Amino acid sequence: MLPRLLGVFVSAVLLPQLANQLGWYSAEVGRQPWVVYGLLRTSDALSKAVTAGQVWFSLILFTLVYALLFALFLYLLNKKIQHGPDEEELSEAHHLSPASKRNNPVISHDAPGISAAALRNVSDL
Amino acid sequence: MATWWFLVVGAVFTGYAVLDGFDLGAGAVHLLLRKEESRRIALNAIGPVWDGNEVWLVIGGGTLFAGFPVVYGTVFSAFYVPFMLFLVALIFRAISIEFRSKEPMPWWRSMWDWSYSVASVVIALSLGVVLGNLIQGLPIGADREFQGSWLTFLNPYALLVGATTAALFAQHGAVYLLLKTENRIFARLTLIVRQTLRVFVALYLVLSVATLWHVPHMLTVFRAQPWLFAVPLLTLGLVLSIGWLIRRRRYFAAFLCSGSIAALLLLTVAAGLFPVLVRSTLNPAWNLTIYNSASSSKSLGIMLTIAAIGIPLVATYTGFVFWVFRGKVRLDEASY
């Protein structure tokens, strides 16, 4: 039961991101055709000096930059997850004695997946 | 009221130039440091303060938007493409500092070193190029819109102002690194400071002549109020004395000196332009001034109250951070 629940929690990492993006999206789309509600229409707020081509340029540029950032983020996050928590961080959280720290399975890097012992440790937190 | 707000905008951009100037400059000379440990020390010298310094740019954009929305709209629309590239440079500089230490591979670290240094130079250059364009004026039409191609952004005079800005920041940053380092990297930096100073002084002299020759309208205010000539003369005095201070090993005084030079150069520009914010090269009647491009008096009054509380607050915490991280850099587990 508990491992399955924790498995579900893993996907919850995405939820604040989704809430953030969708909230912004709803506000921007919902306000149209106004850019300042009731005061200024989006079509009137448009700058004459900025061409459609320039807007395309910036959109594509930032899509590429953010795609690169997302790839780097996934790579480094995955590395951090694979590495697991540091010994020091664990001992601070648990106040473990040096002897029990050496036997702590959470810090063994070759353990496949999350061991039952590790889960017990996590649930103690 | 508009004059007060002009002073607020000027003070914030000056604070930005003096503060972010040295960490952008540290980035500009970063690749001249060869050793891995030197580069780490240099990064950690600006580590606690660089993002706080960038806050002044955010406040600068904010004060311009709140106080002079017409200027904000016109200038940001005119230079839409350069500003987008500027933003990308800001992003790459920030992630380079953060990502560099995440992997030990030499190619990884060298990649982020390059990205950090190139982005720092691009940012310093483009800030100067914007300033150069504001000094010259822009083709602003009767409708207060920019009429021209964004490529006019890159003209010889503006590029000269950009190069001078980058050289001043590099020298300012190199002196800052001297204050934060010791031993071999310190010895290496004393050479770098001299090189950057030589480049800056040469560019400063060329720029001064170019300004007198190319943009004589900057002199109108000075001719009407001759005592204002004290500002550029004081700047010249500081530029000439900075080398002496460095030879006498008075590095903190040299650091204050290069910061004051940045502030005085901006003061010279502000005095020369006032009350114009963006000069129209097409018709003087179409200039964007502090009067025809300001928000309502009520908005300015509210914003002045907020600025009177907010800016001292930011200045105080900035000072506090510098005090906490005073002294020479020592690398530890938590360093970049």
Automatic annotation (TrEMBL), chain A:
An example GO BP is: aerobic electron transport chain
How does this protein lie in the membrane? Multi-pass membrane protein
Per the record's keyword annotation, is Nucleus included, yes or no?
no
Q: Where is this region: Disordered?
A: 88-108
Q: Write out the annotated subcellular location.
A: Cell inner membrane
Q: Name one GO molecular function term.
A: oxidoreductase activity, acting on diphenols and related substances as donors, oxygen as acceptor
- Transmembrane stretches in the record are 55-77
Query: Its GO CC terms?
Result: cytochrome complex; plasma membrane
Please report which protein family the annotation says this sequence is part of. Answer: Belongs to the cytochrome ubiquinol oxidase subunit 1 family.
What is this protein called in UniProt?
Cytochrome bd-type quinol oxidase subunit 1
Q: Which organism is it from?
A: Hymenobacter luteus
Automatic annotation (TrEMBL), chain B:
Keyword annotations from UniProtKB, A to Z? Cell membrane, Electron transport, Heme, Iron, Membrane, Metal-binding, Oxidoreductase, Transmembrane, Transmembrane helix, Transport
GO BP terms? aerobic electron transport chain
Membrane-traversing stretches: 6-33, 78-95, 116-137, 157-179, 199-215, 227-246, 253-278, 300-325
Assigned GO CC terms:
cytochrome complex; plasma membrane
Q: How does it sit in the membrane?
A: Multi-pass membrane protein
GO MF term list: electron transfer activity; metal ion binding; oxidoreductase activity, acting on diphenols and related substances as donors, oxygen as acceptor
Q: Where in the cell is it found?
A: Cell membrane
- What Pfam families does this protein map onto? Cyt_bd_oxida_II (PF02322)
Principal place where this protein is found? Answer: membrane
Q: What is its EC number?
A: 1.10.3.-
Q: Which InterPro entries match?
A: Cyt-d_oxidase_su2
Record-stated family: Belongs to the cytochrome ubiquinol oxidase subunit 2 family.
According to UniProt, the name of this protein is: Cytochrome d ubiquinol oxidase subunit II
Question: Which species?
Answer: Hymenobacter luteus
